[in-house]
Amino acid sequence: MPKPKRLVGRIKQKNQKASTSSSKPPPPPSPPWVELPREITADILLRLGAIEILQNAQRVCSTWWNVCHDPIMWRDIDMGNDSTVDIDDNDLDWMCRVAVNRSQGQLLKINIEHFGNNDLLKYIAERSSQLRHLRLVSCDEISDGGLAAVAKNFPLLEELHIYLAVISEADIVAIGRSCSQLKSFTLNNIRFRGFRNLHFNVNDEALAIAGNMPELRRLALFGNNLTNEGLRAILDGCRRLESLDLRHCYSIDLEGDLGKRCRQQIKDLKCPRDSTSGYEFRAQICDYSSSNDEYPSGVSEAGLSDYLFDYEYDDFDYDDFTNPFSGEYHDEEGFFY
């Protein structure tokens, strides 16, 4: 029995489509990295840092996009800002907030370099109660009191490292009281040495540490102005201290009994004139001082700008075993020569 014309036409169209599809080249294979196990892909991407992930890596393919949105990827956020790449501070702020959001409260460790302010610090604190490790590098817009305002949000904090910045005594007290698990503390304020002719207690920071951080095992006070009084208080108040970095702390004297006690009590001791070779940052010093000794200590803040002079020296300008503030470096006016 002959087939209806309509049915014959459909069969012909179907055969033509099959013939056409069979002539097409097969699709290209998936990129080899797509076939990697998810945990290996995550391990590779974690080595890039948060900025590179958010700017580039997550856009490579849908697999990477999905991996980059996993909260596990954001337990350790490295916002180290490569100085060779020009990124606006507002963009860095936005990327940091995105990274914190993606952690979904699982953030354990964060590093912020060369940007950030009190608002960003507050944003992180409100969403990261599990934080164990906080590192701030040259975060000039985090003002005095910024850390004190959020310290209560970090009850599990074990390590706090602050480089090239200044925090207040109140910040240290609040951190010590709120972060009872703190084991490691770094305060590198090498850029802000001095105010030698003004009224202030050079041991304020040391005394705050001694009175509020009894569980410390590691302490670095690189470039601090503390004297023997402050050091003695730290040895008394931080009995579990095992490592102490006092490089560039030229106001202390370790020649006598105090030095002997330090060496007996501290397993890993770095003295003021010990080499800075291999140190992560430049040992840069800004010395703020009056140009004329006849001005009394306690110059008012309003007139301070008339008497301040900045001196910046990198390590290659003097060797690591020389005190750059000894008299041989000043002329009669108080200037370096």
TrEMBL record:
Cited Gene3D superfamilies: 1.20.1280.50, Ribonuclease Inhibitor (3.80.10.10)
Feature: compositional bias, Basic residues: 1-15
Lineage, top ranks: Eukaryota, Viridiplantae, Streptophyta, Embryophyta, Tracheophyta
Superkingdom, natural source: Eukaryota
Protein name: F-box/LRR-repeat protein 23
Residue ranges with Pro residues bias: 24-34
Organism: Nicotiana sylvestris
Ranges of residues in domain F-box: 30-77
SMART domains in the record: LRR_CC
Residue span of region Disordered: 1-34
